[in-house]
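In response to a reviewer's request, we include the raw inputs and outputs for one of the modeled complexes. The two entities were modeled together in a single run.
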Amino acid sequence: MTSEQIIEKLPYQSPFLFVDELSKVHEDGIEGYYTLKKDEYFYKGHFKEHPVTPGVILTEIMAQIGVVCLGIYLFKETISEDAMGVAMSSNTIDFYKPVFPGEKVFVVSKKDYFRFNKLKCTVQMFNAERKLVAKGSISGMMKPVSL
Amino acid sequence: MTKEELLSKLKTIIEPYVQNEDGLANLSEETNFIEDLEINSANLVDVILDVEDEFNIEIDNDGMDKMLTVKASIEVIQDKLAAK
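The model returned the following structure tokens for the whole complex.
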């Protein structure tokens, strides 16, 4: 399954699609990129006159690349015509560096387990200088749903 | 392992995931994990994984589908233990 095929199966669209490209995907993990647009809708309010990417959005980028894209890959045998139903069930993320408008972030995710439709991953995010931006654990429930 | 021992171990496993404390205080064989204890589906998976570790057994999809109540869980665990 190619990067494009996985991204096409994502249940998101603008302004809440946070995956540009997947650079590596296999049974045990995934890596991918997203570049924050300078005019993302949340910069207007976070913060007043001082745009910084909200932690919840960084978490969402990590979840979309690290958990949902990997989940679609793991379901590749059964997902053919179906859409992917997803729900984040928990996350614990620590943040180390701010991400500003226009920055490109790189997400690396390792599968902890995938059992009974629950996918749990250890996910890290790096900036363009390869400095750690955030890391933690994200879990989600995933299931192909007929359209 | 007696049924009481098994029930006691199961109670210890489910405790961290329970959202309804009254349900836990009134735990019986009829207790339903989702309806009575308000455990969510993601944590139900954690319960199953913890059961596997505690009893050194492997639960398959059929077992998982059955394990919605205390009674059904004990039956599945006993079956798996007997098959070892």
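As requested, we also summarize the result in words. Helices of chain A lie at 3-8, 55-74. The first strand of chain A starts at residue 21 and ends at 26.
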